[in-house]
Specification:
This is Heat shock protein family A (Hsp70) member 12A.2. By secondary structure, this protein is α+β, with helices and mostly antiparallel strands. The protein has eight helices and 20 strands. The strands form four sheets. The chain has a seven-stranded mixed sheet, with helices on both faces.
């Protein structure tokens, strides 16, 4: 019997990785999509580096071969090095005072630096008025630069040599190189490395990637790598089938109860109702980390209440990046609650034999869960909590036979 109403809730299992949609090669590059090739995509943002591997299928759709991975050594790492060098020039005390008194002026200065780092040349940074005035109260401007190499004062501007600028990139470039080498060691035949995002506008970065990996892969970058992210997202919104399948970044599951077995269950998880003894908070896997899921794939799970007169069913969803071997409960380390739903089940005539269906649809930027009370088809009340970081106490009232 089809229910008269169902409840649908969206659970974000992919985090902030929606930029992957920009990687559709028929948009970013004009090549023959009939060739089935593996491509490493490096999304190089201001804050983080995200690298993934896709196969270009016939027709131009993408098949993810490796989940997005990376580190936090993006363009902001370079900005941080610039700022540390400015602090070294003007001293900790002067710089701290300037940051506190003139945050707006500092923000503009850092914006100018983010633009300058796109080039591979000597750079001149206009020194803000208030920073100059504060520095002059200490000593002549030229004095701040006498003991430092690769920097000089040039009529109101801070001139930094190309070699010094390159040194600010070293930590970030080493982190990117390490991540790419780890992926290239895996069992993929990768022919192209495609650079995307705002940080990919840096000539120093592009030259480094080409020098390090140009003999293994062809390094490509769209003329507007940051714009490609936005346009790719729009393309995906209009046609989700552009990404034929994805690799799950997490192991996702739902919290269940099961008949208590003292030989395998923790004593503190035991609770009793009029139907017997149960074990609470069992992690039931819905999809495993690194599992391939099609964009329109749906899996169905069947559950029953733990009490014959129960009229509300709670499903609490969790995710983790830890290995699932040995993982049994949702309150163990590394397991995060990502949301919950409440399904009303007013028709209790069949008691614990009632069927409660949970349909899970994978493959887009989210995992979509649909809870259905087969017997009643009544209106479903919902309670969603996508932002919770702390563990909540939720007594499970559903089990899987």
């Amino acid at each position: 019997m089809r229910p008269r109403s169902v409840h649908r809730t969206t659970l974000d299992i992919w985090g902030n990785r929606r930029r992957i949609w920009s990687m559709h090669l028929k948009y970013t590059l004009n090549w023959d999509s009939r060739r089935r090739v593996a491509v490493t995509y490096s999304h190089l943002k201001c804050g983080t580096i995200d690298i993934t591997v896709h196969e270009v299928l016939e027709g131009g759709a993408l098949k993810e071969l490796h989940k997005a991975s990376g580190n936090d050594l993006g363009g902001q790492t370079v900005d941080k090095k610039f700022k540390e060098f400015l602090r070294e020039i003007f001293s900790d005390s002067l710089w701290d005072e300037y940051e506190k008194e003139h945050p707006g002026e500092l923000q503009k200065m850092m914006h100018d630096i983010s633009v300058l780092k796109e080039n591979d040349d000597d750079v001149e940074i206009s020194c803000p008025y208030n920073l100059v005035e504060m520095a002059k109260e200490k000593q002549k401007m030229e004095k701040f630069f006498e003991s430092l190499r690769g920097v000089s004062w040039n009529q109101g501007a801070i001139r930094i040599s190309k070699e010094k600028v390159r040194s600010f990139f070293a930590e970030s470039l080493n982190g990117i190189t390490k991540c790419l080498r780890e992926i290239l060691k895996k069992d993929f035949t990768i022919k192209y490395i495609l650079l995307l995002g705002g940080y990919a506008q840096s000539l120093i970065l592009r030259q480094h990637i080409t020098n390090q990996f140009g003999d293994q892969c062809k390094v490509l970058c769209p003329s507007h790598p940051q714009e490609a992210i936005m346009k790719g997202a729009v393309m995906f919104g209009r046609n989700p089938a552009l990404v034929a399948s994805r690799i799950s970044a997490f192991t996702c599951g739902v919290s269940l109860s099961d008949r208590f077995d003292e030989s395998k269950h923790r004593a503190d998880k035991r609770y009793t109702n009029k139907e017997g003894e149960w074990c609470d908070d069992i992690f039931c896997v819905l999809v495993k980390e690194n599992e391939e899921v099609g964009w329109d794939k749906t899996s169905e799970h069947s559950f029953t209440p733990v009490e014959r007169d129960q009229t509300a069913i709670i499903f609490a969803f969790y995710r983790t990046e830890r290995k699932i071997q040995g993982l049994m409960y949702v309150d163990e380390w590394g397991v995060e609650n990502i949301g919950s739903i409440i399904l009303e089940s007013p028709d209790t005539a069949r008691g614990m034999n009632r069927e409660i269906k949970l349909e899970i649809k994978f493959g887009a930027t989210e995992m979509t869960a649909t809870a259905i009370d087969v017997d009643s088809g009544s209106t479903v009340n919902t309670e969603l909590d996508f932002m919770a970081k702390s563990k909540r106490s939720i007594r499970n009232n559903v089990w899987q036979k």
